[in-house]
Amino acid sequence: MPGWNLRSGVLIEVHVSEDEYWSLFNFVFSDACRKTNTYKFGLIKSICDQIYDLNEDPVQGYFLSYDKLFAKFTENYWNLVNKYGLKQMSYNGKSEYSKIELIIKEAVTGYDIPENIEFLSVNEKDRERLTRIVTTECKKCVIGALYHDFEGKLYAFDLCGNGIYLGSGAYRFISKYKMEIERLNYYSWARFLEKVNDDDALVRVLEKLDLSTPQRKDLSVYRELLYKEFREDTCFYCGKKLDKKVHVDHFIPWTFVKNDNLWNFVLACPRCNLRKSDSLVSQDYLIKIENRNTLLMEATGFTTKINIENEFAGYHTGLLKRMWEYAKMSGIRERSGFAEVSVK
């Protein structure tokens, strides 16, 4: 496969228009782009999942470490392969399973892990060990291949380094069209999976792809931090006093972010949280949450289990405003009718 054996690649970022980025993505999603497995789809998904969690380097671009990139990649593939049983490769005359699938299957047997459980249910030591093995394999065979397909205009990389650097233009493009890219990626991935799996129900395959990185179900540690340590005892939206029923809400909906970060969490009463659901609230609330986040970043001496510095990696003032605008452009509706905002 062209580019798969590249050891490094520089970013070619003369002015790249949005039309050219769309052309490059559409090529990768098309049958014209050679694929014997689904790794390229998985890598694009992992980048999209973490696009709002990157650190900006003023010289090299937006940094995404191999550790974070392939931790998400491993989680996605674990759930698709072990939980849902979906093959990820065309039969090559020797095997019907890709190397990543074999690594996961060997881990299930070798680590004595029950089948069909989600990745986050595997103990931390086994998850870390599996991620290291997957990272080693993917650095060899997919980083260079996807770099080549994008003609060096998406990211720079060095396999001897610690990660990839997205160019500023690529970062803005993916941030802006994140949901559209994800939809196209899912559809192309599902078309490939239909060819190599017995299940011919496209809708069910698409649902499994979307659920391969599930939302964290237990957000109690964030509720403890905000409610008890930072004394956030009123609903972020309506301002009413919170009682025992306290909801942790993604300010920018999880359907758009696909990630859990402290800077995007607020506490809400059940009524407001359920009413807001997967919608946006007025931009007026942006000032309120940015002021709150400034206080969180300045906090020291707390005994919480959460590392606040790590939670805010990649966060900067204005990020939520840009996410709000891009989420609305992507079709997420704004919900009106909440109480007037009191900025503190």
Model description:
With 344 residues, the protein is an alpha+beta fold. It folds into two domains: 8-210, no CATH class; 220-329, Orthogonal Bundle (DNA Binding (I), subunit A). It is built from 15 helices and seven strands. A five-stranded antiparallel beta sheet has the order 1-4-5-3-2. It has a two-stranded antiparallel sheet with strand order 6-7. A hairpin with a 4-residue loop joins strand 4 (155-158) and strand 5. Helix 3 packs across helix 5, helix 4 (99-110) packs antiparallel against helix 5 and helix 8 (178-196) packs across helix 9. It is globular, with a radius of gyration of 21 Å. The chain starts with 7 loop residues before the first strand and ends in a 15-residue tail after the last helix.
Summarize the structure.
The protein is 48% helix and 8% strand. The protein has 15 helices and 7 strands.
How many domains, in number, for the residues?
2
SSE topology string: EHHEEHHHHEEHHHHEHEHHHH
Structural class: alpha+beta
For the biggest sheet, the summary is: 5 strands, antiparallel
Rg computed from alpha carbons, rounded to a whole number of angstroms: 21 Å
Percent helix range: 40-55%
Low-pLDDT windows of residues: none
Instruction: Give the strand order, joined by hyphens, for the main sheet.
Output: 1-4-5-3-2
Strand content: 5-15%
Distance linking N and C termini: 56 Å
Number of helices: 15
β-strand number:
7
Roughly what is the average pLDDT, rounded to an integer? 89
